[in-house]
Every structure is written in structure tokens, then in C-alpha cells.
Amino acid sequence: MKMKVTLMIVVAAILATAQSIQAGTIKGKVTAHGAKNAGDAVVYIDKIPGKSFPAPKAHAKIDQRNMTFKPKVLPVLVGTTVDFLNSDDVLHNVYSPDKCDGKFNLGSWPKGQTKSMTFTSAGCIATLLCNVHPEMQGTVVVLETPYHAVTGADGSYTIKGVPAGTYTLKIWHEKLHGAAQQITVTESGEVEANFDIKR
Asked: How far apart, in whole angstroms, are the C-alpha atoms of residue 150 and residue 153?
């Protein structure tokens, strides 16, 4: 019996390794027209018909530090719980005026404490604000697949571990827009997809 269990574990490990080997990478660059740089855009694979993904057990995190939300933009898989930590010496608040998950308001809390919110509405864009400090703003982008990335200031992005297949790749930016693309990812391959975004 013990040998059978061990064999099953080994087979599972081999299958997991094979699946990871058969995963490709999407990478590219975003050019932004009308913004100071191409950072904080979210590039993501849209819903995959017939495929759903379980919500992650691990929580995502947004820090409130130096009067800013860090990261400013956070893409999450639907069902993800986000922990909001206050790292400043002043009270902070987190609320969203958007209809995403009910125009939530988590109240205010002091340094070192955390409050949490679970995002259950796929496709939702939740603007994050602080009613204590109106200059603070962030965004949670709720997606239907775990295949996404946030661009750096130079517009570059990489999405790793994408199973082979043909997908619709989309982009979200706070102020700019870009057209979706159909891409095909091969096993252990790399596909390039660049975006131009503008008003």
C-alpha cells in the first residue's frame, strides 16, 4: 500500500513537470500615447470558454505607504481576497465608489493593521480611494484567468506559464485604450504581442 501511494506521488510529480514544460510565455511591449509612460497597464488573457479557475487560497496584498497604494494597480483572479495594510503613521481608509462588489467601504484603521476584501465580480474594475487622503488612488482589476501581467514604466510585460492554445489577449489602462489580439501560444514557446494604447 505504501509503495502504491509513493508511486502515485511520483506519477503526479511527473505529470506536473510535463504540464509546466508544455507552458509557453507571452511577452511584449505597450506603447502609450497620451500618458507620461506605459506603466500600470494590465495585459491579460480573457475568459477561456469552458474553463474556470479556483480562487487562490493565498491573499493578495496592497500596502498603504507614503500616502499611496502600492501597487497602484493590482490584477487578481475572481474570488481573490486582498489584504489592505496601513504602513503609514496616520489613519487610512479604503473605499470604492464603483458598483464592483457593492461600492464597499472598509472604514479607517491605524498603522500596522489590515482589513480585507474579497472580489467576487468577474470583469469588475474597482477604483480604490481613501476618504482621509483624497489624493490617493489605486485600482483592483478582477479577471477570469490567472494569466496576466502589469506593465513596467517602459511598457514591457511578461506572462509565464500559459498552456498551449489560442486565446484573446486584452489590455486595460486607467485612461487609455487598445484593441484586443488573438494569439496562439505553443508548448514551451514564446509569443510576442505588442500594444498601442491611446485615448
From this structure: 10
In SS3 terms, 141-180 reads as EEECCCCEEECCCCCEEEEEEEECEEEEEEEECCCCECCC
Phi, psi angle pair for 10, to nearest 5°: -65, -45
pTM over 0.90: no
Q: Of the given ranges (10-19, 73-82, 128-137, 159-168), which has the lowest mean pLDDT?
A: 10-19
d(CA 139, CA 96) in angstroms, rounded, equals 9
Do the domains at 1-53+147-199 and 65-143 have one common CATH topology?
yes
100: its cell numbers: 464592483
Average pLDDT of 50-59? Answer: 96
Query: Percentage of residues in the chain with pLDDT exceeding 90?
Result: 85
- Distance (Å) of CA 102 to CA 95, 134, 170: 10, 20, 25
d(CA 30, CA 43): 9
CATH 2.30.30.140 fits 1-53+147-199, yes or no: no
CATH of domain 65-143: 2.60.40.420
